[in-house]
Input
Amino acid sequence: MSKLFIASNNKHKIEEIKDILNRNDIDIDLVCPRDFNHVEEPEEDGKSFKENAYIKARYYHDLFNMPTIADDSGICIDYLNGLPGIHSARFLPDMDYDEKCDFIINLMKDIKNRNAQFVDCMCFIDKDNNVSYYEGINEGTIAYKKAGSEGFGYDPIFVIPEFNKTEAELGADYKDENSHRAKALKKWIIDAKDRL
Output
């Protein structure tokens, strides 16, 4: 069976990628840094989602010498001029995600422009060292209060206007088909799944 290295130690992200691939009948042996007891991570000092995805993909591809996919993702809020963006995971570092969501809600309690995007950029480096990128974007708005328990990160405050529910309310069935990560990964499936 072909192997694909997932360049992440985020267990939620790894499970989500596994679920998306399973839903699309992609039978691949997924491995991640933890499988090799590797905890050191590269410094994500890029200026864009694309640059950070490449930094992670290149680091792990060269380290373990196998086809590698890495993604960098985040929430971009219009009112905050696109922040937290590429800093989403490191935004307000002394807070957990529950507290970060509360902070954003409180900050925006009187703001009318609540538009936001979830952005995901994936970088794939194949067995022949070819580099490809795949982007997925979900348009939404920032909720006035947290809702839902079936997501992680900023899912409880990211509303999908079509349903008027947060991604955390819509849960795995929605996310595995329609999230920013699902959109990017489906592009990879179409373009590159045979390059392992």
User: Anything to note?
Assistant: The chain has one domain: 3-195. The first helix runs from residue 11 to 23. The mean pLDDT is 95.
